[in-house]
Each structure stands twice: as structure tokens, then as C-alpha cells.
Amino acid sequence: MTDSEYLEKTLTDGASGGLKKSKKKQKRENAWRPEGPRDPFAMLDSLPEKEQQEIQKALHLFSLGNSLPKTLQQAKKHTYRFWDTQPVPKMGDHITTHGPIDEVDANIRNEPYLLPQGFSWDTLDLSNPSVLRELGHLLNENYTEEDDNTIRFDFSPEYLLWALQPPDWRLQWHLGVRVDTNKKLVGFIAAVPAEVRIYEMKKRLVQIKFLCVHKKLRLKRMTPVLIRELTRRVNQQGLYQAVYTAGIVLPTPISSCSQWHRPLNPRKLMEVNYPGLKQNMNLQRALKFNRLPEVTKINGLRPMNKEDASGIQSLLEKNLCKFHLSPHLSLQEVKHWFLPKENVNDTYVVEADDGTLTDMVSFYTISSRVLNHPVHTDLRAACLLCVVGNTTGVAELMQDTLVLAKSKGFDIFCALDVMDSIGFLDNLKFTISDKSVHYYLYNWKCPLISPDKVGLVLPN
């Protein structure tokens, strides 16, 4: 039974209350119905929002059996029909060499790949406020792997522009899919240019962001076409490699990291039943356990300004070269990714007495909506982007960062166990979650990288 068939059965059963009607009454009702099959998705849209959420939750549970694996053990038993055709390492390969998997193809396809009937490609012009709002709506409603109908992303227009328009971004790499009949945006994938250091080699490539297909269309097999078409457009610009992350296991991760979080507002997190909180704590104990100082301790700690960009670039260049996977940032990229923007990102530096910058820390903002709660409507998470602790030490710098994040109204602080984070996660009372982030390279092979040798965080 497909999702569509299951949805129609669920809606029909729900509407009838599960009671069988007499043949005579059923025939009388059918006489007034239009000929042809009913559209189950139109039926879904006609229901109240709360009932829609319950049915979507049932659909999600119904389709779990066909979902992509989330652990390496599950992945070994999974058949990847699409990825087996792509230039990526196969599951179980032991790689000791470096370099491209496929050589450059001079014959790049000129025509776009075909979409399922009834859908068309659209290059999204995010300078148009209405298009930007459409993208935000698509991602906010559909950019989750699991939907428990309690918390959903709420990407702001400012955040999307920050994530999708770094220096040298290209319009044709913001790829959308629309329904022919009503022009509704139902799919999206993006690439942004970057230079990344992979072991000893610097490589110009793209970062893949926001792969999203409308939940009602997951069975249309749009994801492979989105990836193929974006690959074609990127290849046209002379780039043949990509880096991306996912919460599911694909062929084949070069590194796998764990997500950690640190409550800043335990009361609110407990009231909204935030996933992953310690269940053995009552509110009073949670408040005491997660208490933070009222003020910061590090002398010279202040927000970044424009004049700090070259100093931060030098700090990053010296620090990131010790990792096997890390960004190589131009001065303009440093300004774009780290200069503070309200409700998008925050960066703090430590300035010595002689005016030089010795340390820095940066985090970005992920906002979410809280659904069906009598009190709370939103949730704000601070996500660590980068930390360099030369003089003060990473743990001390991160403690002050938690204090600053809490003072700015964040509810939780999230970090991956990458870079130098192993030096502060346990000491600062971060808790490991059951979610992982897997790193991938497209058309590039290299030996596996341990999380502490990953120096790259991709905001999504």
C-alpha cells in the first residue's frame, strides 16, 4: 500500500467513523460524488490543522519501514539503488588513497533532467521577498526527517540569505521544483561555493544545503532528480566535488559525529518536552544542575566588528590547518560567515591589551515553532560554528559563551563533537543526543576522518 492509498483509507475511515453503511445509502451518496478517483491530498488539506497533523504522524509511522538507515549497521543491509550509480565510495570500501572517483567529463548534458509529469524546474530568485517566503514555508513545514508534531523549524528570511548567499554564490544553484497547475513550490536543493582543505589538499567545491521535498511527494522519487540536476548545473561551472552532511547513513560517510546539547532554559525545555533531556531530573534539580554564572569572566571578550575580520582570518588559518577537513576562508567569506547579524549568528573575540585578537567563538541561531502548547510558541537554539581558544582555553571560553547565549534569550546550546569540543562537552554539562551528523564527499575519496579531526560545520 502506498502513502497515497494509506492516506485515502485513513481519511475515508476517519470520515465514516469506521462504521459500515448500507448499500442503498452508500449508492445514494456516491451519486453526488464527481467521477474519477478522489485526490487524497486534497481531502487532507480540507481537514482542520490538528487532524492533518495526526494523519501525517500516522503516515510517518506507516512509512518507517522504508526509511533510510540511521546507523552504519543498518546501512550494511540496505540497498542504495540511486547512490550505487553515483561517484561515491561504496559501503565497506577501505580507502587509503586520495583523489576523484570519476574523472572530469567533457560532455556535460545541456538539457535539464526530466521531472515527474506535472512538475517543472524553477531557479529561485531569493531577492524576491515572496519567493524567499515560499522557500521558508517549504522548509519550515517539510525540512525534517522525523515529524513528532511538537517542534518544527522556523527559518527566517535573514537566516536563509546568510546560509545561501555567501561570496560568489550563483543564482542557478538555487534549484526549486513547482507544481505545473498552481505553481506551488514543492522541492528545493542548493549549492554554495567553498574552498575546503581535505587532508593536505585544498579543493574548490560546493557545499550542498537544504535538500527538501514536500512530505506529500516523497514517493515521487524527486530526490535523485534534484541531485542529478544540481550536479549538472555545478559541473557546468567546472566544479566536480561537493561536501554535505546528513542525519541518515548514505554511501559512505568520511566521518560520523554526535550532536550534544546543553540546556540554558531547563524550565521551558521540560515544559515543551524537548527530546533528549535527562529524564531522571525534576525541575528543581534541573535548574540547579544547569545553573550558570550571571556574568562572563574573560577580560577583553567582546562582540566582533568589521575591523576584526583580518584578525579572525589569521586565527582561523593557524587553527584550522590542524584538522583533516576544514574550510579555507577568504576575507570576504570571514565577514559573511562571522560578522554578527541579529537572530542569525553571533561572534565574540578576545582582544589582548596590545589590540591583537587571541581567541574567538561563533554560533548561529536555529529558531523553531512549538506546536499545540498552551504557553510556549517558539524555541531558540544556539549552534556552535567555530571556537578557537589559544590564550584562555576552550572550556573557559565556552563557559562564557553559554553565559552570553543565555543572556540573549537562547533556550539551548547545541554542538557537535568535532574540532576541539571534546575539551569542554562533559565539563560544561553537555549531554549527548541520539542523533548523529554524517559527513560526505561527492566524487572524492580519502581515508576516514575521526570527529576530532573535522574542522568544518555546515549550517543547514
TrEMBL record:
Pfam families: NMT, NMT_C. It is a peripheral membrane protein. The keyword Transferase applies. It catalyses: N-terminal glycyl-[protein] + tetradecanoyl-CoA = N-tetradecanoylglycyl-[protein] + CoA + H(+). Its EC number is 2.3.1.97. Keywords: Acyltransferase, Cytoplasm, Membrane, Phosphoprotein, Transferase. Its main location: cytoplasm. One of its GO terms (cellular component) is cytosol. InterPro entries: Acyl_CoA_acyltransferase, NMT, NMT_C, NMT_N. Residues 1-42 are annotated as: Disordered. Belongs to the NMT family. Adds a myristoyl group to the N-terminal glycine residue of certain cellular proteins. This is Glycylpeptide N-tetradecanoyltransferase. It comes from Crenichthys baileyi (White River springfish). The lineage of its organism: Eukaryota, Metazoa, Chordata, Craniata, Vertebrata.
